């Protein structure tokens, strides 16, 4: 009886926590399915007839919406988020391996400096980046935004992946070395397969950061490379907030990270519990 | 040997073709690309058609490319451009609140007026231009839309409550709010008597104070806008603050601490407010059956109150203007578009009749066809031509002034400060901010 009581109270608390966490997302989805009158209703309506009018506004180029072409913004977000994640993980894996396995002067200092750059808010570097990008012809380009996100996310990715690599016993690599395996071979054939969950967890985090970023995208893009977070905020106008299309755009923007994490889930569960960042 | 000669000849021919092609592209006059950024919203919706028309008219000469940015992101983006002196955008949107803050980054338009023989006062009215002049009295932007915060009121509810004319004094507003507030059986409020009192965000409180203060001829800043106004220490300000405090204490308005201007618009359109001070372009929303439950039941008027301040009564206003970045390499082209979109009566009327833009040109504001379509034009016209408008944030220290008013009103409405203390604090803090003393 005591056991049942304990279990049910734990489940109750967890259920409440889940409901509280998921409620804002549910609210956004509900608002996106309401008609303009129902989005403005006071008190808010919990029961209503769902409509896809807001979604039609986004893709149909209806005159009531400001969005020129949501497909373009989705494409931009995909290109920038995926490519910056790939590049980040490539460099982060190499960098993490070096920091974990090699001994060289200033290694600890370099590790700290790498982490320290992550403590700088992205917006603090917006103006210098804006100037550099303008002069280098990278302003409002996919490559420019990719470089900015990669630079911002690499430090944290290195720290995360390094923690996972540290957990792999050095003896395995020594054995491989004895068998004639090169350094790159050890990385490719031993380290990466073993730390795949950790790398996947880091990749998921990096993707989410790149997908959700607003401040750098706002400063470093103009009309060609606008991303989804900018589109969502564009419905905040001097005349009022267009809740319907705004929440519809937010719902669409939610989907790719969720799908990404669903696919990476089996790696994430192992990865997040496998290695902790070791300081 | 022969094939080498042939190859050499082909290579030379290729080089010649390339040189000729580049000569053609270098030699031919290039179309100047002029970039404009605006806030998302009705202006961004109104512009594409006009930009298309302008580009057709100036094909081969100029091409306008427009971009819209959300209101919250617009100023940071513009300031980045100004600080770095990299003119990403040639044509700059200038909200009334930003006018003085941005004037040092904008190119004065006087030379263009002289060249094209334009009398801006005649086209827009001096009242509409007052806030757009720099210290040397030069215009740094021209208004593209005219908007003001006016009184929206429910004609049906006022009639039901036996209120035959709009309130004209603070006691009359209070009395009207008491009569118009409808409470339900369980003690909740079905309809609030009055709105416009808001302090959720830092940008909400300053207008809330300014509506009634300016209606009474008082100001937050002095006439030179270099110090706190002595009106803040006079009974006129204390009376306004006491009125605002009483309205909140008696529950005649929604809780201002969790209320912003968007909440006001939403509540009014859903029939939850009997009166409020709202942005004039929102009249379109109130008359749209898809978004409003009060279609045909709304009246519009200037918020008037018994004058007691040191200056003339004025409405709180905010409208968009267009200026030119002083670092822009395309000033002439930028001016051609600004002139096309602001000072052109035909274009202004087209945008106005489409319902996407409130006109800035006086002749369109006076046009009977426009007046028949847009019910709120009467008070807006009066504000632009004779009544006048002002705002306390229209200085470089605008953000800090907003924060001071926001903090003090929050303290008053949460019961931690009395209106008298708030009035004194407003003067002292703003005086210190503006003078450094």
Structure characterization notes:
The complex is a heterodimer of chains A (279) and B (437). Chain A folds into 2 domains: 2-60; 70-274, MetI-like fold, CATH 1.10.3720. In chain A, 73% of the residues lie in helices and 1% in strands. Chain A has 14 helices and 2 strands. A two-stranded antiparallel sheet of chain A has the order 1-2. The model of chain A is unreliable at 62-67 (pLDDT under 50). By secondary structure, chain B is mostly helical. Chain B has 2 domains: 33-147 and 318-379, 3-Layer(aba) Sandwich (D-Maltodextrin-Binding Protein, domain 2), CATH 3.40.190; 149-316 and 397-435, D-Maltodextrin-Binding Protein, domain 2. Chain B is 48% helix and 12% strand. In chain B, the strands form 5 sheets. Chain B has a 3-stranded antiparallel β-sheet with strand order 3-11-4, covered by helices on one side. A 3-stranded antiparallel β-sheet of chain B has the order 8-5-9. A two-stranded parallel sheet of chain B has the order 1-2. In chain B, strand 1, helix 2 and strand 2 form a beta-alpha-beta unit. The model of chain B has no long low-confidence stretch (mean pLDDT 90). At the A-B interface, helix 6, strand 1 and strand 2 of A face helix 2, strand 2, helix 3 and helix 12 of B.
Ordered list of secondary-structure elements with their pairings:
The complex is a heterodimer of chains A (279) and B (437).
Chain A: H1 2-32, H2 36-39, H3 53-60, H4 70-101, H5 107-118, H6 126-136, H7 142-166, H8 170-178, H9 183-194, H10 196-212, H11 215-220, H12 228-233, E1 236-237, E2 240-241, H13 243-263, H14 265-274
Helix pairs in contact in A: 1-13, 3-13, 4-7, 4-10, 5-7, 7-10, 8-9, 10-14
Chain B: H1 2-27, E1 32-39, H2 42-57, E2 62-69, H3 71-84, E3 91-95, H4 99-102, H5 110-116, H6 120-124, H7 126-129, E4 142-143, E5 149-154, H8 155-160, H9 170-180, E6 182-183, E7 189-191, H10 202-215, H11 235-249, H12 261-269, E8 275-279, H13 283-286, E9 298-301, E10 315-316, E11 320-324, H14 331-342, H15 345-353, H16 362-365, H17 368-373, H18 377-387, E12 389-390, H19 398-413, H20 419-435
Parallel strand pairs in B: 1-2, 10-12
Antiparallel strand pairs in B: 3-11, 4-11, 5-8, 5-9, 6-7
Helix pairs in contact in B: 9-11, 10-19, 11-20, 19-20
